[in-house]
Amino acid sequence: MTDVEADGSVTASRDGDVLRITLDRPSRRNALSHSMIETFVDLLTDAATDDSLRAIYIRGAGADFCAGADWVSTNSSGQRPRTGDLVRRIPHTANRVIELVHSIQLPVVCSVRGWAVGLGCNLALAADFTVAADDAVFWEAFVGRGFSPDSGSTWLLPRLVGLARAKEMLLLGEKVGGSDAADWGLIHRCVSSAELDDVTEQLLTRLASGPTVAIGLAKQAINHNQHATLDQAMTQELFNLELSCRTTDFKEGLAAFREKRAPEFGGR
Length: 268
Fold this sequence. Notes:
Belongs to the enoyl-CoA hydratase/isomerase family. The protein folds into two domains: about 10-210, 2-enoyl-CoA Hydratase, Chain A, domain 1 (Alpha-Beta Complex); about 210-260, Orthogonal Bundle (Lyase 2-enoyl-coa Hydratase, Chain  A, domain 2), CATH 1.10.12.
């Protein structure tokens, strides 16, 4: 096996105005190596400033989505890392992936088959829309391995499913299947494995044909207003409204309404 195959890769391709990202290390359930995470951060950083993009799609190669960060390889050298290694490194690697998915002003869609564990689970939770197959399993495995949760899990889970269920997943390490994840509001939707690709593509098409600036600003306001008072939230909405009303898509939306037809948004 070559070093590239052992370390895995994160590949990206353009499909019109959709960026398709694949976590490609199926022999390790797409566990993310250091090099994979670095590539992932670079791809998302570039996407954040690419005005030609209108949506991002993230999937895993093979039967699983992502088994998290590859802690086995990271700790197999036998050499003790320098004190403070995690504090120095993780904000720029695993945490940065979650921050970018959460904050990028483009809709992010994940499709999940099989295992979504640790960082992989939190990546799916940070996305705007996660569609899971009915064989999917979401697992925050941190405490069961003897260390505390990271990559945003203690922020994401209580907001999505409430404290009681967040503690089930984080403190007890309970695994959650795709159907329960959808019922709990952890993800957007659960479908059969045979339907997963079609349902995901329909969602991507809908998002990529929408008013991209308005969608991005709405996402920004939702995130900002998790910490805001009502007055602060409405003020943020006003600033975003001022920006979105200056777009070509806003003019198209008004014209379509007047002419009683479906709008054709260009993402500008």
